C-alpha cells in the first residue's frame, strides 16, 4: 500500500515549480503604475532555474516608452525599470535604471532562496549589462529607443542560498580508552632501539675493513 | 635585484617576532586613570513602588554610618554613601531576574527578585557582601502580580542565634511563609488551599504569632484574610476573613501601633478602618471618625504606627495608631495643591535614636523654591513640632522632583535638622542637608540614547573670540612680547630635556582656567567633548579627558508641557558644525562647534500628538544656538513638524554647510535649518540620495527592508517625500531586528587591497553603501517553527547594498532556544565580524558555545581580480562578484556590544572592541581574527603577510582587556572616535556605566615613546657638531694639499 502511495506521490515531487515575474516602469515623481506579467521562472531542480518570457513582454517596453513620450520633462537618471517577484504577501522588487535598457545585451536574475528542497524564492536581484561603471545614463536619449534587441537578450538565472558560517576547526581530542581514561601513547623507541641493526652493520663493516687496512699498513712497513 | 629581495625577506622574517610582540596591547598599570576613566552608575532609582524606591538606612554601632539603598531601573540594587554620594556597593541583577522589593534591617539588606519573589539574596548593608541566597520556586511557577511586589515580603525577627543576624520570615508567591534562622531554613508554611483567590501580601511579627495577611478578590473589591501562625513551628493558630471591602490594593497598610501591637488599616468608603490582630483573630474592626479621606499612604514609618492620609478636600494629615485606634497626629493645613503651591511629597525618616519624623516637600510657585517641612511627633510635649526651610532646587536643570526620602537629627528639643534625598524626573539624585546641597549624581547618564564626540578648538582660537583688527592684534602681540624670554628659556629647556607629551600622557589641562576658555584641545586631540542625550530628555557635555560633566541641560517641552505625561524623546544627534567647518558667513571663520539633537515630544494621553523638534546648541556650553535669545532655563527646541514622529534622520554635508534631514512616519522630508540655502543644498543632491528603511507590513506585522529615493514635494509643508524603489523581502518567519550602518563611514580608506606574500593582490570589496541587516524569527512565527525541524527558524546576517537592495552576503545562524537571536555585528571597509551563540551542536558534532565569525570580502573570484568596487555604481552586476574569506573562532563570553577602532586617516590596522558579559571591554586584534590564518605553520610567504597559525579559541588573555579591573556593566554601545594621532583611537562605552580609554592597534608608531632618550640624542648631535668644527679645518687643509700635489 505504501509503495503504491509513493508511486503516485513521486511525480508530484519532481514536477517543476514556477513563479511569475512582473515588471513596470516607475517614474519617481509620478503615479505608481501596475505591474504587468513579464514571464515566469521555472525551477528545474533545487539548484537551477530558467526564465521563460511572456509572449507579450516585448510589447510592454514599447508601452513604457510611449508613456515616457507623454511626459514633458523627465530626468532620465530617475526613471526606474522594476522587476517584481510574485510571492505570498508583498512582492519583492528590484530596480535598474530605464536608460540602461536600450543598450543592454544580457540580464541576470538572482533569486534568493533558503530551502533547496522546496525551491521558492523570497527575494530577487535584477541586473542588466553592459552599463558604465559609474552607472551614468548613455548620452543618447532612451526615451525613443527601440527595444527589439531585448527579444534576443541573454538571460541568466542564478539561485543563491544563505551561507552557513564555518565551524571552528577544533583540535582532535586525545584518544580515550574504553574505560574513558586518556589513552597512554605508545612510548617512542630510543635512537639505538630504532637503528641498532644499521649501527651493528656499520660497526661490523668498520671492524672488518679497519682490520684489513691495518694489516696492509704493517706489511708496507 | 635578487640579492635585495632575499635581504628584504630575511629582514621581514626577523621582524615578524617583533610584530607579534607588538600585537599585545596590555594596559600598563601606570596608565590606569590617566588614559582611561570609569564612571560607575547605578541608574535612575525605581520609583514605581515604595518597595524599591530609595530610602535612608543608618547602621548603628561604634561608627554609625548612613547609606541610601535603592533598586534602580536598570535592575541594580545599590547603596550610596550618604556623606559623599559615592557608590558604596552595587549588584547588577540579570535582566530576567527583576528586583521586586528591597528590605533592610540592622547591618543586612535583603532583596526578593523574579515573579513571586522567587530569589532571596541577603547582603551586608555597608559593603554589599553577599551573605546567602535562596531560590524558592522556578521562574515559570512564579506568581505574576501588579504591582510586582504584591505577594512577596520579608519581615525581620529577633536574633535567636545570637550571631547578630535577625531571623528572616519570607513571604513568597503569595502563599508561602519561610522562616530562616541564620542561613538555615527552620520551617515553611504554605497555604493549603492552592486554588484559593487569596494572595498573601504581608507578614507582621509578634512574639505570640506571625500574621500572614492577604487579600481575597471578590467581584468588585478585596476582602482581608488573615492567618496567624506559630512563630516556633509555623503551624496555623487561626485563620479568619476580616469584614472589609477594599477597592484598591494600595488602600491597605500593615503596621504596628505606637505600643507595638499589629494592625491592619485600610480605606473603605472614604473611611479609615483598622483591625487589631491577635493570635485568635477575634478582634473587631473599628472606624476612625475624624474625617473622610480619599487616600492613605505609607511613608516608611509603619513600624511606629504613623502614616499619611489625604482628605477629600486635598489637605493631608499625619495619622497614628495609638491606644488601639487611629488618631490624627498632625494636620498639614492648606496642603492641598493650589495656584500657590504644587502637590506635596511626603516621606518618613528616623534620627540617630530611632525616633520617627515626617517630611513634606512642595514647590512654591510664588517663591520659585522648594519648601520643606519636618514634623517631629515626639517634640512639643508629645503634640508634635514642625520645622521648615526652603531649598534652592534648580528645576530648570534637573526636572521635577518625583521622590523624596529623609533622615533627621534633633540636637536640642526645639531644633530639627533634616537630610533629604531627592530623585528627579531627569534621573538626578541629590542630597540636601537642610538647605545646602551636599552632592548630586546624574543617574540619567545610565539611559543614554544618542552620543557624539566633538573636537575642541585650539587654544588660540578659543582665546581670540570675535573679530580682531590689525591694530588690536599689534597691541596684543606687543604686550605678549614681554613673555618672549620666558618662552625661549622654556623652549630650550624642553628641547634639551625632551619633556614632550606622549600618547600615554594625561589629556587633562594643567591650567586652572574654567569655563569655555579652558576648553581647548590638547596636543594629540585626546581631549574632546562627548555630547550625550538621555531618554529622560536631558543632554550632557562631558570632558573626554576625565569624565567630568562640563554642562547639562534639560530639553524644553515647549507647548507640550501642559499635557499629561509630556516628555521629550531624543532620537538622533549630529555635529552640525565641527571645528574647521566653515560658518555660513565665511568671514567669521571657524567658531564654536555646534550640535543638533532631533527629538520628538508629546504627552501620553490618547489625544496627544507628537511633534518633531530640533534642539540646536553649542557643544562647549550647551547654550542655544537657535533660538539665539539666551536666557536661563531649559534648552529650547525648534519645531520641525507637527503631528508627526521621526522615522529616521540624517545629516547632509555640502560645501555650504550641513543640513539635518528628518524623515517622518509618512516619509515626508523636513529640513533643519529650514532656509532657502538648506533647500538648495538638499535639492542639489536629491537625485543621489537613497536610504534603506525598515518598513512594517500592517497585514503580517512583519518588517522588510525597503529602499527609498526622494522626490520634490509639490504641495504641503515638507520639501520632499521618500518613494519606495526596491524591497528586500525576507524568508518566511524572519523579521528585521536591526539595521547597522558601517562603523567607519566617513573615514578615509587607506588601501584598496592586500598584497600577498607571492606578490599577488587581493582587492578589497569596498562598497560604502553596504549596511548590515540582522534578522530574527518573527514573534508570531517563531512558535510555529520547531527548533529541531528542518525548517527551524534561524537568524540572518545580511550585507545589503543600501542603494539597490542587492544582497551581497547572507549567512544563516542558529537561534537560541529555537526563537530568539542575539547576534552582534560590525562592518568596517570590507571586514564583517559577527558574534552569536551556537547551540546547534549536534549536526556538526561540536560543542555549543559563543562564536565569532570574521569575514573579509574581496573583489572577483580569485586573487588579482579587480572590479573597482569602490567607484562602481550599485547597478553594475560586478557588484555581486565577491569572494568572502571566512573563519570561525570560539569566544568564551557573550557580547553585549561590538565596534571597530577608528583613526583619522584609516591607515592604522583596525581592531575589534567588544564588551563582554563578564563586564570587561576587550580588544581583539585583526591579526587574531584574520580569516586567512593558515591551519598549519605559516610558510615564508605567509609570514611576510604576518599571518599566524589558526587557533580556533580566542583565549581570555588579560592583556586584551582594556578595562583594567573596572566592572563595566551592561554596556549598550561602544563608540570610537579618531584623535589627532593616526595611531590612536578613543573608545567610549555606555550602558549602565561610562568608560573611556585609548587604543593604539599598531602601537604608537607616530609619536616618540616615553622611554626615548632625548638627552642622549641631543648630546650625540652636539658632540658630532663639535667634532665637525674641529675636523673641518684639517679636512680643508688636506683637500687643499691634495689639489696641490695631485
Automatic annotation (TrEMBL), chain A:
Compositionally biased region (Pro residues): 164-177
Pfam families referenced in this protein's UniProt entry, alphabetically: ECM10
Region feature Disordered, mapped onto this chain: 164-185
Signal peptide: 1-16
Keywords: Signal
PANTHER family: ER MEMBRANE PROTEIN COMPLEX SUBUNIT 10
The protein, known as: ER membrane protein complex subunit 10
Protein's organism: Marasmius oreades (fairy-ring Marasmius)
Taxonomic classification: Eukaryota, Fungi, Dikarya, Basidiomycota, Agaricomycotina
UniProtKB/TrEMBL annotation, chain B:
Annotated ranges, domain EMC1 first beta-propeller: 27-443
Ranges of residues in domain ER membrane protein complex subunit 1 C-terminal: 828-1044
Entry keyword set: Endoplasmic reticulum, Glycoprotein, Membrane, Signal, Transmembrane, Transmembrane helix
N-terminal signal peptide: 1-26
BP GO annotations: protein folding in endoplasmic reticulum
Localization of this protein: Endoplasmic reticulum membrane
SUPFAM superfamilies in alphabetical order: Quinoprotein alcohol dehydrogenase-like
Xref: InterPro entries: Beta-prop_EMC1_1st, EMC1, EMC1_C, PQQ_rpt_dom, Quinoprotein_ADH-like_sf, WD40/YVTN_repeat-like_dom_sf
GO cellular component: EMC complex
Positions of the Pyrrolo-quinoline quinone repeat domain: 513-625
Membrane topology field: Single-pass type I membrane protein
A Pfam family recorded for this sequence: EMC1_C
Metal-binding keyword on record: no
Assembly description: Component of the ER membrane protein complex (EMC).
Family: Belongs to the EMC1 family.
This protein's name: ER membrane protein complex subunit 1
Organism of origin: Marasmius oreades
